[in-house]
Design goal:
Elements: H1 2-24, H2 26-30, E1 49-54, E2 60-66, E3 74-78, H3 93-97, E4 101-104, H4 119-135, E5 143-148, H5 150-161, E6 167-171, H6 177-184, H7 191-194, E7 212-217, H8 225-234, E8 239-244, H9 257-269
Parallel strand pairs: 3-4, 3-5, 5-6, 6-7, 7-8
Antiparallel strand pairs: 1-2, 2-4
Length: 270
């Protein structure tokens, strides 16, 4: 009996240590930046110009920009947690060929940019890119916010701050990071209350009045497909939902997502 209690105590101590370490290092589990800088030639694109913006806390960030043809919208794209904007550049070339503008936002701490990733920091980054587009005389109505995975929380926050943006596209969105963490780590007690960078999109989407396209991967194992459907349900009209069967988290654009984005852009431009 004493031996069993001893082993139970050891296992309990290991479990407690694991939980404490997860709480302390949760930012490393959420933000997984590729810190290396890549040039357009490194990833095989030529349609973009590298730009630099300065955030309100004085961090200089690089992003890539392709200007829209007259009368076409510009997409402001916020990528996911384990990639960089550079590796998403090629995906948007078909939209650039159709005349749409694309600004790929580089976050702090990603792709050679200075700074440390955080929710508040990402919002400052996003505002700097919006300010850049506005400095080029682009009205908000010509800007469509596009978030991928982690970036959906950034896009939703910007859509709540800038009500007159032309549209909002959410690819594989989550309800909140706290909900996603609870799905992946059900063994951590009270995990929802322990999350620092929350990105609570589910509580914000109801105030977004811009036209919305929500894209959900039916076989997503990273973010629960039900989260995207809840985001759609809570969102006011106008809105559209696309569910991609037999599609995993990173494959939406390859499985028909990009043509659906082009259709959405055409619809909201008419």
């Amino acid at each position: 009996m004493i031996t069993l209690l001893k082993y139970a105590g050891i296992l309990g101590s290991i479990y407690l240590l694991l939980v404490v370490l997860m709480v302390i290092f949760q930012d490393r589990l959420l933000f997984m930046p590729d810190k290396k800088y890549y040039s357009p030639s490194d990833v095989g694109v030529s349609a973009y110009t590298e730009i630099t913006v300065t955030t309100s806390d004085n961090i200089k960030l690089k992003g890539w920009y392709a200007e829209a043809q007259p009368g076409k919208q510009t997409i402001l794209f916020f990528h996911g947690n384990a990639s960089t904007w550079q590796w998403r550049a090629k995906d948007f070339e078909p939209l650039i060929q159709k005349g749409h503008g694309v600004l790929l936002a580089g976050y702090r701490g990603y792709g050679g940019n200075a700074g440390k990733p955080s929710e508040a920091g990402f919002y400052q980054d996003a505002e700097a890119y919006l300010a850049y587009l506005q400095s080029r005389q682009l009205p908000l109505s010509a800007i469509v916010l596009y978030g991928e995975s982690l970036g959906t929380g950034v896009a939703v926050e910007m859509a709540t701050r800038y009500k007159s943006v032309g549209g909002l596209i959410l690819e594989a969105p989550y309800a909140s990071i706290a909900e996603t963490a609870a799905m992946h780590y059900p063994f951590v007690p009270f995990i929802r209350s322990l999350i620092r960078n929350r990105f609570d999109s589910i509580y914000k989407i109801g105030s977004v009045t811009a036209p919305k396209l929500v894209m959900v991967a039916a076989d997503d194992r990273v973010i629960a497909p039900a989260d995207g459907k809840r985001i759609f349900e809570y969102a006011p009209t106008p809105k559209a939902l696309k569910v991609y069967e037999r599609t995993s988290h990173n494959d939406i654009r390859a499985m028909g997502g990009l043509p659906d984005v082009a259709t959405f852009l055409t619809a909201i431009n008419n």
